Amino acid sequence: MNWKKKISLTLMLLMTVNSFSALGASAAPANGYPEWNNNPDVFQVNREPAHASFIPYGDVPSALQGADMISAMTEHLSPFYESLNGQWKFNFAKNPDARPLDFFKDSYDTSSWNEIKVPGEWQMQGYDFPIDVNITYPFWGNGNSTNVQPPVAPTEYNPVGSYKRTFTVPDNWSGRETFISFQGVESAFYVWVNGQKVGYSEDSYSPKDFNITPYLKAGENTLAVEVYRWSDGSWLEDQDSIRLSGITRDVFLFSTPSVHMRDFSVVTDLDSSYQDAALNLKVNVKNYNNDTTPANHTVEAMLFDANNQPVFNEPVKMETAFGGNSEVQVSSSKLVANPKKWSAEDPNLYTLVLSLEDSSGKLIETAGTRVGFREFELKTMSDGTGKQQMILNGKPIMIKGVNRHDTSPDTGKATNLDMMIKDIELMKQYNMNAVRTSHYPSHPFWYDLANKYGLYVLDEVNLETHGVRDTVPASKPEWVENVKDRANSLVQRDKNHPSVIIWSLGNEAGSGNDFKIESDFIRSLDPTRPIHYEGYNDKAVTDMVSNMYPAVSTLETYAKSSDPRPYIMCEYAHAMGNSNGNLQEYWDMIKKYPNLQGGFIWDWVDEAVRMKSPAEKLYLTDAGETYKADYTGTVVDNDGAVSGVLQPKDIGSATMTLPNDAKYNITGPFTLEAWVKPLSTISDSPIIAKGDTQFALKMAGTTKLELFVYKNGTWTSATAALPANWLNNWHHIAGSYDGANLKLYVDGTVVGTKAFTGSFSSNIYPLTIGMDKEKGRTSKMSFDKVRVYNRALSLTELNDDTRTADASAVLWQDFNKENAQSSPLEQHEFFGYGGDFGDNPTDHQTSADGLNLADRTPKPQLSEVKHVYQNILVKAVDLVKGKVDIRNEFLFTNANAYEASWELRADNKVIQQGTLDNLDIPALTTKQITVPYSLPTAEPGVEYWLNVSFKLKSDTLWAKKGHVIASQQLSLPMNAPHQPSVDLSALPVLNVQDQGTQVTINNTDMQINFNKSTGTIDAIKYQGKDLIKKGPTPSFWRAPIENDKGNGMPSRTATWKNAGKNRSVTKATVTPIGDKIVRIDVEGTLPTTTVSSYKMSYTIFGNGDITVSNYLKPGASTLPEIPEVGNMLTIPQEFEHITWYGRGPNENYQDRNSGSDVGMYNSIVEAQFFPYIIPSETGNKTDVRWVTLTNDDGSGLMAIGAPFIETNALHYTPDDLDGPAHPYQATHSDDITLRVNYKQMGVGGDDSWGAKPHAPYMLLANKDYSYSYTLRPIAAHTADLMQLSKTVTTINLVKSIQVNGIALDGFDPEKLSYTYNILRGNNKVPTVDVQSSNNTVKVQVTPAADVNGKTVINVSSADGLITKTYEIQFNVVDHYLSNMDWASATVGWSSIKKDLSIDGNPLRLRGPSGTVTYAKGIGTHANSEIIYNLTGKNYESFQTVVGVDQEVSGTGVNNTIVFQVFLDGVKAFDSGLMRATTVSKAVNLDVKGVKELKLVVSDNGDGNAEDHGDWADAKLIPGKDPFAVLSGVSLVKANQPFDLDLQLNNVTQNVYALDFVVNYNPQQVLLNDVTSIQDKVDIVAKKELEPGKLRVLAAALGSSIQSGENLLKLAFTTTNETVTQSTYTDISVSDLVVADNQGAEGNVIGTQFRVQFEQIHKDALITAIADAQAKYDGAVEGSNAGQYPAAAKAAFLAAIQKAAAVANDAASNQSQVDQALIDLTAAVQAFESSVNTSIPGDMNGDGKFTIGDLAMVAKAYGKTSSDSDWDLYKYADLVQDGKIDIADLAYMARKIIE
C-alpha cells in the first residue's frame, strides 16, 4: 500500500470513528476502527435484548386478534404500532469515504436526494449491482482490487446507503416507552433520531430494537439510518445466494408502558401418552423507569381455542415483585386436558393472551401468541438396536422437506406476504411437510404461516463462513459472542412457534469449539428442541447426523453404523435446471431404515432477478468482417500510450466470445498472444481460453500465469510467477505449443516451459477472450492486440512489432473503434443471474437451483417430488382379483379423510370407475383391500391400467376440494393377445425408382424421396402434404443440462456431439420385397474417437408405413457414455398439435418418471419447451407407445414404438439449446425438431458439480443398441388416433426368442446376432424356443453342439420372400463379482459401481508400463465393505487386481488406500498403502469351503478424499470337482412350509445312482419328505440316522442323471419356536456318492443352504399389553368423577385380550403385530377419554342436579340407539339401555329430590 493510500484510509477511519463517537451513544472501539470494521466482538451498540415476536396491545380482544405478526401488522393494527415502511430519502455512495458524513443532522438538506422503497434492497431499485457467488466472498473482486481477510471489511468498494425520513409519534404514546424495530438490515447499520446517535447493529436477518424514547421530541422527528453493504459481520454471512443489501425487512415503531412484558416463552409438554399437556409459561417483565421501583404487578394468562372461546375457567395469575431489579421473570404451569394437537397434518392452534395489570388492578398491556400443543423429542426405538428416532406426538416423523431462501425476482430478499403465501400453498400442494430456513432466519411472517398451514421448520442461525470456514469462526474466541448473539436472536424470536422443531447452528461454517459453545448456549435457552449442524456432526454438538448430497449408498452405510442418532439430509437432490432424477431411489432407502428420517431438497426456488434484455447486440469484427464476436465492456481509442483497447465497463468484465468455427478448434500447435492490463487479481482469470478442457492462457490462482493443454483427464501446464508490477500495467503475454513443448512468455521473455507431445482434446466451448465459458470464469483486465495462430511462433516473431497477419493467424483483433459495432435487438424479459449484473467474480447461475422458477412457476420435476413425497401408497398384490395394499404414511391422519377413487382404463378409455368408501386405514398402517372392478376381457393390443387417487374432500387453506394428494397407476397383468398384422398381400403396389444416389418410392397416396448418399429420407408426401423436411438422421446428443455441465459431460462426451451429423455412409442397399414392400439398408461409420458403426433400415410398405430400425455399435467400450441414442426429424411447422400415448403430461426422463402416468395426452409443440433459466434439454417423454404431430385438419405423422420409444418435439434442435445463456437467446425455428429415441440418459441430481446419473440410467459404450419404430402417415380428420396406432404392418417373422424359458435380453427382430453368457462349470447347452409372428412362418432351430457353440435359427415367410437367420453364440464366462449380488455393501462416498469406477468411468488401474483398462470389476470408495455369501457355492479361488483408479490425480496428497480381503472373518490379504501412483496388485486366494468373502477398502486413517478403489477383474473360480447345490426360498416364517431343490454340477460321469445325507436342526425345521422332480429319477430308500439326519438313496431309471438339472425336492416346515430362538438355520447335504452304469463310484462335494427366519418383534406390543392391563386393573368402575363406565371398561378388556391373542400367536406376522399395537394404543386413548370428568347426569355442567338437567332429558325423550342422530342425544341415556324413556326421567327426578 502506498503512502497516499495509507493516509486516505487513516483519514477515512478517523472520520468514521469521530463522526459517531461524538454522539454519545457509546465509546468508539478501542482499536481505532469503526464498529463495522475489524471488530468481530462489536456487533451491537445500545440495542435492546432479543425477544419473541409480538406487538403489544391495550386490551384482551385486540391481543386475541393480533396474536401473530401477520395479524398484528396487516389486519388488526395495535394503537401502539406504527409502520415506517414506505418511501425514504436515499443517497448511495460507493464506499465509506464517499458517504455524506453529516447527513443525520437535522440541518442536512436531503431535498435533492432520490426516494427509495423500504423495505427493499437498493440493488433492486437502481443502485449498485447484485452479486451471485457461492463460496467466494462477494467483496473479493467486484470493485475491490485486493482480497481483504477476516475480520477486516473492504473499503475500496463497499457501498453505503444513507436513509432518511421523518415521523410523528402518536399523542396517545405520551408517557410511554417508544421503540424502533428493524426486522432485517444487511449488513450493518447505525441509527440516529433527531441528529442523535441511537445505536448500531449487525446480523442481517434478525430483528433489532432500539429504545428511542430519550431522543424524541414533540411533533415531527427525523430518523437517519446508515447501512453498510459489508461489515466484519459479513464474514459470518457467506450464504450461497444473490448478495444484496439495504433495509430488507419491515421497520416500525411500537410503544409500551414503562412497566412492560418484554418477553415470554410458551412450552407445551405432553404427557407420556401424548394426551394431556402442561402449558408452561415464563414472562419477563421490564421496568424502564430507572428512578423508581414499581409496586408489584400481575401477569394473567388465558388460553383461547380456535373459536376464541376461553379454555380455562379462570386465568393463570403470576405475581411480579421487582425487589430493586429492573427486570424479573415470572412463571407458571397449567394442565390442559386433551388439547387438540398441532402437526403439519392438522395444525390446530390455540391463542394465548397475556395481560399485565398494575398494583391497582388496572390493565396496562396485553400481548398474544398462537400456541400449538405438540411434543417433539428424540427417543430410542424399541427394536433393540439402540437407534434413535425423532418423534412428534409419539410418532416417528419423516422429513419431506425443501430448503427455502427469502427471494423474489422483483424485490430480492424483501419478499412480501403474497409471495410467502404462494410458497407455502405450493409446498403443501406438492406434499412437502418441512422447510429449512436456508441459511438464516426467515421473515417473521413465514413462521406464522408455517404454524397456520402446517409445516415443520428447521430454523437456522444466520451463520455461514463458506469461503473461510477453516479459520472462521473455528475455535477463535473473538467470534464467540458474535456467534452466540446470532443464535440468541434466532431462538428468542422463534421459540414460541410450534412449527419450529429443530434449531440449526448455521451452514457450511466449518467446525471448532465455537460451535460447541453455540450448541451449549442454545440448549441453555431452549432444551426442548434438538440441534442440527451438518458441518460438525460431533455428538457433543448435534442431536442428529446430517449430510449434504450423500449418495444413496451413504444412507445405508450410516443406517448400519454404530451411531444411534437419527439421520437427515439437510440438502439433497440438487434442483438446478432440469434435475431431480433418481429421487425415488433415495426414498426407497430412507424407508428401509427407521432412523433415516428424510431430508430437505435443495432448493425451493431459483434465485434470479427479472431483467430486460439489451436493446442492441454488441459485436466485434475484423477488418474483413469475417466473424461477429459478442463482447462485453467498452472499446476505447486509447489507454495511455496504447491505442485501441477493450476495457471493462463500470464493475463488469471485458470479454469477447468468438462464434463456433472449426478454425478455432485447434488440437495441435498454436500460439496465443495478447497485451493485457490487469486491474485486479481475480483467481484463475482467463486471458485466452477454449473452455477449461482444451487449451487456455490464464492466471493460475492469484500468483501465477499458466498455459495449459488438456488430454484424457489431465492438464499439462507451463507456469510462472506473476511479474512484480502485474497490476495496472500493460504486459505482453503469450503461450505457444510446437508439438514438443509448451512455452510461456511474459514481456518478451520465456518464463516457463513444459514438455508435451501429440494432439490434445477438443471440446464444445467457444474460443473466448477474458473469460472461460466452460467454468464461467471472467477476469478484470483490459485487452489489446489479441492473436491466435495455428502454429508456434518463435520468440523473435513474438517480439517483432512490425509483424502482420499470415495464413496461420486464425484470430487477429486490435480492438479499434471501427471493429466495435452494434445492431438493434428486440427486447425480452428474462431472469438474470450472476454475470448479468456485471458482478466479477461470479458463480453465474449457482443460485438458480430451485424446484420453481423465480416467479414460482413450477418446474416439471416438482411433479416427481409430489409423487415421491406423497403419504398414501398403493401397491399391487393380486390385480387379477383386484387386491392391493394401501400404505398410509401420514402420522395422524386416517386415509378416510380423503376421497379415494379408482378408474380402470383400456388404453386411454375409462371402462370402469368407482370410489373406495369407508376406507378405514389408520395412520402408519397398511391394509389390503379389494378394488371392486370386474376383470375385463383382454382385447388385442390393448393395455389395461388401474388408476387410484386420493383427493381433498373439502377446501383447505392451501388447496381446493378435489386436489389430488396421492395417486398411483398400476398395470393390470392381462396378457392381451397381440394385434394381428396387416395382410401384406392386400397392400397397394409401390413404384420404386433407384437412380444413382436418389431413390423415389410412390403410389397413389404417397411419395418418398430417399438419399442414399446421406442415408436418410429427403421428403415424405402423403395425400398432397409434405410430412417431413429432413430425417430421420442418427442423433447421439442432447443439449447439456446443468448436471451434465457439472460432471464434465459436454467435454467428456464431445465425441458423440456431431457423430451423427458427420457420419459416413459406406453402403446403401435397396431391396424390393415383392411389389408392395421395399427395404433400404444403410450402413455407415461415426467419427468417434474410436470409430463406431451404425445401421439404419427403412422398410417401406404400400400403405405408407415406414419401419425404421436402428443399430449402433460403439467403437470401443472405453468411449464415453452416450447422451442419447436416437433419430432426429425435421417436421413442417404446420404440424403443431402433439398427441402421445406414454408418460406425461409433464416432461419426464428414465430416472424421473415415477410421478408420470401412462396416458394419452394432447398439447402443442410450443408448450413442450420449458424455459429453464439456462436453456437445456427439455420436453422429453418416456415409455411412449406412439406420438403424433398433426395440423388443424388432423393430418400429419405418427411414430409408433416397438414397443416403446422416447420422444421430444420442440421448435429447437439440441444445438439451438446448447450454448445460449438465456431462453430468449435460443434460436426458435418455425419448423419442428422431432426426436424419436431409444433413450437418452437420465438427468441425475445427486448434485450438480460432479455426480452423473445413476448407472441404470446411463447409456454406456460397452454394449450395442438397437431399436425400431414405425412412421405412419395420418389422413385428415382421423378421429381415433389410438385405433390408428394399433394396426401392425411388419415383415418381422419372430416376436420373441426365449433361452431356457426366459426372453432373450435385448431381442430386436432386426438384430440378427446375439451373445449369451453361460457361467463356467455349467455344461448343459441352453434350450432355445422361438415365438413366430404367425402360424405360417417356417422356423428351424439348430442347437449348438456344446456350451461354446452357436444355436442357429432360420425363419422364412410362407411365400419365401422374407428370410432371416438369427445366431446365438454361447460364451462361457467366469463368475465375475459384478454379475453377482452381494449380501451387503457400504461405501464412504457416492455409490458402488459394477464394471465402472466410482465416478462412472471405465475401470483403469496403473500397470507396470502404463494404464490398464478393465471391462469387469467393482468400483468403490473408501471406506467400503462388500460381503458375498459363498455358502455351498463350491468356489476354488478368488482372483482380482486392486489399485487406485486412474481417474484421480496421481500427484495429489490424497488417494491413500488399503485393500483387504477377509475369508470367514480372517484377513487373507492386505495390500498395504496404495496410491494412484502405485502399480496395481494381483490377488489370488484359495476359497475352498469359505462361506463369506469380505472385500474392504479403508482410507489409511487419513481421510477418504479421492480414495477411488477398484476391485478389477474380480471373479470367483469354480471348483473342478463335482458338487451339489441346494436352491430355494431363503426367508421363512414360523410354521411355514418351504422347499429346497437339489442338483449336481460338474459331474462328467454317467450317474445312475445317488446316496447322500440330509442334515438339519429338528428344533428349527421339520423334514416332511424328499421327492423326485424328474420322472426318470426315483427315491429308492430313506432312513433317519438320528434326529436331524436322513439318509436317501435315489436311482435313475433307464438314463443318466444330467448335471445342472434340479433332481430332488426337499420339503420342510419351520417350527413354532423358530422366530423367537434363532435368526437362521443351516440345511446341508453331505456324504454324497454317485455311481455310473458300470458300478464305479465317485464322491461329490456336499453343499449347505442358509434359511433366514423372519423376525417378529413383539417387545413393544407385549410392553403395551402389560401397561394396558395395569391401567385396566387400576380403573374403578362407576359413575363418579374419575371412575369409568362399565361398557368402556369391558371394551378396553376386549381390546387387551385381542392384542394378547396376536402376541401369543406364533404365526403372527410383523404387520399383524404392528397393527395390534396401533389398535391397542387407540383403545388406551379411547378408554382414558371415557373417564367420568363430572357428575353423571349433570347435563348443564353446573355441578348439581336441577330442573335444567331434567329439561335436557325431556328434550331427548323417545330417542333410541337406532336413530341416525343418536350421537346427539345419547347423553340423556342415564340408565344406559339404548333409549330415552321414563326410566331416565325417573332417574333424573330422583337425583333432583335427593
Automatic annotation (TrEMBL):
CDD domains: Dockerin_I, Type_II_cohesin. The keyword Signal applies. The keyword Hydrolase applies. GO terms for molecular function: beta-galactosidase activity. It catalyses: Hydrolysis of terminal non-reducing beta-D-galactose residues in beta-D-galactosides. Residues 1732-1794 form the Dockerin domain. This is Beta-galactosidase. It comes from Paenibacillus aceris.
